[in-house]
Amino acid sequence: MRSQAIAAGLEMQPADVMWKIDDLNKRITSSLHPGWWLLELLPLKRLLYYNSDRHTLRPHLGGPRRILPGQKVHVSALFKNNYKPYAHFYNNPEGWPEPMFWNDANSHRRLQNLSDLWEKDIFDECSIQTLLDDLKRGQPNLDALDRLAFMASFDACKAAISGYEDAKQILSTFLKSKDRLIRLSTAVTYCELGWDLLLQTTDGELVQQITEDVSELLKGDTDHRRACIYMPSLCKQPDLKAGLISKENLKQLVKFCDSERIVKDEEGTSTVAFHSAQALSMLMKLDVGLAYRLIDIDAVTDITGALHSNCRPALVSVLSVVDALAKHESARGTMGPTVATLLKLVKQFDDFVAPAATRVLCSLLPEGLFTTEIKTIVYR
């Protein structure tokens, strides 16, 4: 509504809406609690969706809300990997897009192609000035730094951040913070903007500190999600990538996305699985040699085991990793048992999972190693 008001000519102050990483991973609470169901079952008079001048007494029976022409959905919903939409677009063939990730180039392209049904003010460049003005006062604010790091991953916002007077100097003070998360969030912005971290300290001290910070988060008991979210951005800096893509860190990422953790569906587990799988997927795009490292640490079996996940967004990312591994002969030799699982995923006719599973099968099939097994499963 704010964007529409500005477009109509209303002058407004820059938005001061704080974006938080943790908000994207909160559990979704159903609004249809027992008390509300009573209203859903009663024949209460209400407007019809398709005609605002007509009414009905037919009980709603917990039916989905309709998104009517002129209404918009906030794009932040697409960054909540655990969100299952119940609302439907009224009289519109557009479906709900697959989840997006904040520093994924493919997600950025899909965002640009979204229709006018989506509200994109989360990327409002005007808020950059507000964020940097607040940070200029010298008070570390993790939520503000996270929002800035998020926006820095988008091309449309990079120039606005870099063009702010003394932006680099303002943020450099937070690289020296004693708070690990403050340091990391600031470093993410630096890496997304292409600023050199080595210029901030001598002998690569800061690079070493950031590398250790991420490793400690991965091995610790909390903030696994943040480590997974930050890694792809940090690895855009060559010196950081060399230290971050270590065997120990890769083993932790593989561990986080395995099927047993996901199936348990414990608090936060599925979101950690999603972010770790997504991190592996994006890291493989940044480093073509990562597949060999995963093969060296015998991660192929663990990763293919995650194909039994019940977390659909994580499953799509896992399939992307498996597809990259399937292109290597040394990995394909252990993937025979996964063909049956892949075919089951294809037969589910899921708009997101089935295409990803099909791509993996196409990577496996050219060698002809599994033709007999595939025919057996198809005609069984």
In short:
InterPro entries: ARM-like, ARM-type_fold. By secondary structure, this protein is mostly helical.
Radius of gyration: 23 Å
Could you tell me how far the N terminus lies from the C terminus, measured between alpha carbons in angstroms? 55 Å
Average pLDDT reading? 80
What general outline do the C-alpha atoms trace? Answer: globular
Largest sheet: 2 strands, antiparallel
* Beta-strand proportion: under 5%
Low-pLDDT runs: 259-267
Secondary structure: helix percent: 40-55%
Q: SSE string, helix = H, strand = E?
A: HHEEEEEHEHHHHHHHHHHHHHHHHHH
Strand numbers in spatial order across the main sheet: 1-2
Overall SS class: mainly alpha
Tally of individual helices: 21
3D architecture notes:
It is a single chain. The protein is mainly alpha-helical and 380 residues long. Among the domains are: 16-26 and 34-119, no CATH class; 257-380. The protein has helices at 2-7, 34-41, 105-112, 126-136, 142-152, 155-162, 167-175, 180-193, 205-219, 224-234, 238-244, 247-256, 259-264, 269-286, 290-296, 300-305, 312-326, 329-332, 338-347, 353-364, 371-378; strands at residues 46-48, 51-56, 66-67, 73-74, 88-89, 118-119. It has a two-stranded antiparallel ribbon with strand order 1-2. Helix 9 packs parallel to helix 11 (238-244), helix 17 packs parallel to helix 20 (353-364) and helix 19 packs antiparallel against helix 20 (353-364). It is globular. Mean pLDDT is 80; it is low at 259-267.
